[in-house]
Amino acid sequence: MDIEEIAKKVTLTDLRPIAKEHGIRTSCVAKIDIVRQLPEEVLEELARK
């Protein structure tokens, strides 16, 4: 699954806690930018949901 597809599929409410676990800034950042910074294994998990 493509990064853009994952970003469309996942809500920001679900994405924020995951990003904070990995030390990614979530304020004033677009959802696609948060998804691009996530590790591959997290992206794979989000794609399965």
What is the general shape?
A: globular
Q: Could you tell me how far the N terminus lies from the C terminus, measured between alpha carbons in angstroms?
A: 12 Å
What is the number of independent domains? 1
Estimated share of beta-strand residues: under 5%
Tally of individual helices: 4
Mean pLDDT: 94
Derived from helix and strand composition plus strand pairing, the structural class reads mainly alpha
Work out the radius of gyration: 10 Å
Runs in which pLDDT lies below 50 for 5 or more consecutive residues are none
* Secondary-structure element pattern, one letter each: HHHH
- Total beta strand runs: 0
- The helix content is 55-70%
Major beta-sheet overview: none
Task: List descriptors.
49 residues, mainly alpha, 4 helices, 67% helix, globular
Short description:
With 49 residues, the chain is mainly α. Helices cover 67% and strands 0% of the residues.
Care to describe what's here?
This protein is an all-alpha fold and 49 residues long. It has one domain. Helix content is 67%, strand content 0%. It contains four helices and no strands. It has helices at residues 3-9, 12-21, 31-37, 40-48. α1 (3-9) crosses α3 (31-37). The longest helix is centred in the middle third of the chain and has 10 residues, at 12-21. The termini are close together. The model has no long low-confidence stretch (mean pLDDT 94).
